[in-house]
Amino acid sequence: MNQSKEVNRPGSVLIISAIIVGLFVLWGALSPGSLESASGQGLGWMIENFGWFYMLSTAFFVFFVIVIAISPFGRLRLGKPDERPQYSWFSWIGMLFAAGIGVGFVFWGVAEPVLYYLDTPMGYTPETPEAAVAGLRYAVYHWALHPWAIFSIVGLTLAYVQYRKDRPGLISSAFYPLIGDRINGWAGRSIDILAVIATCTGVATTFGLSALQITGGISHISPIPNSVLTQIIVIIIVTFLFMFSAATGVDKGIKILSNINLILAGLLLLFVIIFGPTLFIAESFVTTLGGYITNVTSMSLTMTPFTESEWLGTNTIFFWAWHISWAPFMGIFIARISRGRTIREFMAGVLIVPSILAVLWFTTFGGTALYLEISGAAPIGDLVMNNVEVALFTTLAELPLSGITNVLAVILIAIFFITSADSASYVLGAMTSNGSLNPRLSVKLLWGFLIAGTASVLLVSGGGGLQALQTASIIAALPFAIIMTIMIISILVMFGKDYKQEGMKRRRKRMKKLKEEIREEFYEDMKEEVYEEIKEDVKEEVYEEFKEDMKEKVYEEIKEDLYNDLDIDQNKKNKDK
After folding, report:
1. Which residue ranges run through the membrane (predicted)?
2. Residue 173 in contact with residue 161, Cβ under 8 Å?
3. Is residue 564 part of a domain?
4. DSSP 132-150
């Protein structure tokens, strides 16, 4: 009991990370202009000097997870060899999708393809058919394999060390094979603090985006204004709703909401496919999927060293860094819900399914928005450039039953918001409670309020506060990208040792089985041979005994007959006399 209390007791990681986040919020509240200026300079420096590192590392992450999935390591299980998955496939995929990335799908699903149609990648002319194709392809590129490869590396590593090695669910636990017990000192705490800060800034950004889109949707379907006050009220309401969900735990709150959200998202997706430009969406899906598969390698390894173009830095590198800042949060949550699955099954669910959903989602919503923009039916392009949070609702307004679908979209975003807050509070609570699978409710609520407060203060502060937070989260992602690269070395060390041990166990089991088979075969052969020998011996013995018995019996019979004959002869002689 005392040990359990010690594990759940918050420590220095909570205190230090909460102070750092609080100081950052205070800076944004008191001087948003200087925060924006400093973070902007930091972002420019990072992209200029480390853009190549982000491009190369994310491409390597994708390559690594694919190789791991198809390698013999794919048979290893995230848990003990006899463990089985805790959640059904549907619930698992629902929680993966709703953990937070679903907010990105809903927010950018319409906006990003249209944005790249107007502000094109290098080599394309804006507002051309080629730009539309490229816009869809690059939107899928930013949300398919690469982000999920980033999340899966952290999730895979933490699930393995937590359930296979019985270590705490902390980022620092992944480094035990390399630095040993030093993870229990300041080296490990520093890694965990960095992960907490990156997670907090990344999640707070999503809070802000969710609040912006919810208020944008409400203002589109009602007279309520899309103001900062409305956004703060939305954050307060969602925070209280998330508290009820957090109190019920992962098995009930997040699981139930995730299943509901997956159904709502599926219904909205089907509605747009059926009532939108169906043929255009189908053709866009095939073209985008084919273009993505064909060009993903070149897109992953292409930079623009001979031009002054800033597109790559403000878009692709921006998204890679943002996804890396999300990696601790998504990784820990994915690990929490993936116990008992094999590495190959884990990769199939975490990598392939969301990537296919990304292609389908972006070609459906982005394709519909592009269709409306190109045909001149709705000014989607102007909204994306100036008021991006209402782009989805304007697109739905051009389809039948817009009143219902807009309300459904607001509910969808709200539930995504709640599940993101719930998941984030759980993850941050676990990270600051020594990796406890069941952090205290008070710690989860503390982080929920702190993240909500961060987003609220930066929305109120204005002057690019939310953008400054987003930029800061990207800068914080740089050291974590280096940590992830070292993490791969650590996990390969663990996989190699465990696969070797399992191989030895399998070989011993095969040898034992082979010995038993040989023993059985030898036994059968010996049994047959001995049987024949014994049969012959017994046959001879029985024959001899039978012969002796018969001989004795015949002897007795002959003897008796002789005696009888002798008696008869004697009697005859006596009569003659």
Report:
1. 12-30, 50-70, 90-111, 145-163, 193-216, 228-250, 262-282, 317-335, 347-372, 407-429, 441-460, 472-496
2. yes
3. no
4. HHHHHHHHHHHHSHHHHHH
Give 28-81 as a 3 state SS string: HHHCHHHHHHHHHHHHHHHHHHHHHHHHHHHHHHHHHHHHHHHCHHHHCECCCC
Give domain status of residue 91, yes or no: yes
DSSP states of 476-495: HHHHHHHHHHHHHHHHHHHH
> Residue 418 is encoded by which pair of tokens?
């709640």
What is the SS3 assignment for 190? helix
Domain range holding 478?
16-498
How many folded domains does the chain comprise? 1
d(CA 91, CA 103): 18
List all residues 6 or more positions away from 93 whose beta carbon is below 8 Å from its beta carbon.
262, 349, 353
Neighbours of 56 (CB within 10 A): 14
3-class DSSP state for residue 426?
Answer: helix
226 located within any domain: yes
Each residue of 155-185: b (16+ CB within 10 Å) or e?
bbbbbbbbbbeebbbbbbbbbbbebeeebee
pLDDT tens for 233-261 read 888 887 777 777 666 655 565 667 777 77
The CA distances from residue 536 to 130, 224, 520, 542, 550, in Å, are: 92, 105, 24, 10, 20
d(CA 405, CA 368): 15
Using an 8 Å Cβ cutoff, are 477 and 325 in contact? Answer: yes
What is the model's pLDDT at position 574? Answer: 64
- Averaged confidence pLDDT in the chain: 80
User: What's the DSSP call for residue 126?
Assistant: T
511 domain-assigned: no
Would you state the pLDDT for residue 67?
Answer: 92
Closest CA to 159 of 24, 302, 25, 339: 339
Give me the DSSP letters along 238-256.
HHHHHHHHHHH-IIIIIHH
Question: What token pair was written down for 233?
Answer: 């009220």
HSE-CB at 52 with a 13 A cutoff on CA atoms is 4
Non-local (6+) Cβ contacts of 432 within 8 A are: 10, 11, 13, 14, 17, 18, 192, 196, 439, 443, 447
- pTM across the whole model: 0.80
